[in-house]
Amino acid sequence: MDFGPYLLLASLEGAVTAAVLALMAAGLSLVFGVMRVVNVAHGEFYMLGAVLAWVVASAVGGGPVLGFVAALVVAPLLVGALAAAADVTVLKRLDYDPERTIVATIGLLYILQQLTLMGYGPEARPVAPPFNARLALPWVEWGDAGPQLYWPWGLSITSYKLFVIGAAVAVLAGLWLFMTRTRVGLVMRATQLDGEMAQAFGIPVERVYAGVFGLGAALAALAGVLIVPIQQAHYLMGGEALLLSFIVVIIGGLGSLAGTVIAAVLIGMSDGIISVFFSPTLAKIIATLLVAFVLVFRPRGLMGKAAR
Amino acid sequence: MSTLLSTRALSKRFGGLTAVHEVDFDLPEGEIRALIGPNGAGKTTFVSMLIGRVAPSAGAVVFDGQDVTGLPAHSRVALGMAYTFQITSVFARLAVAENVALAARRRLGRDRAAVREATARALDRVGLSDRSGALAGDLSYGHQRLLEVAMGLAQRPRLLILDEPTQGLSDSEIAAFKALIRGLAAETTILLIEHNMAVVMELADTVTVLNFGEVLAEGTPAEIHASAAVQAAYLGTGADA
Amino acid sequence: MTGRGREIALHGGLVALLAVLAFVLPAYHHGNVARVMVLAVYAMGYNLAFGYTGLLSLGHAMFFAAGMYGMGLPAYHLGLGAGLSFVAGLAAAAGLALAVGVLALRTAGVAFMIVTLMFSQAAYLTILLFGTYTRGDEGLVLTRASRVLAGVDLSDPMARYVAALGLFAVALFFTLWLVRQPEGRVLVAIRENEERAELLGYNVFRHKLAAIVLSGTMSGAAGAAYGLLFGYVGASFAEVQYSIFPLLWVLLGGAGTVIGPFLGTLFMFYLIDLSADITSAYMLIAGLALVLLTLFAPQGLGGEIRRRWAGWLP
Question: Do B22 and B120 belong to one domain?
Answer without folding.
Answer: no
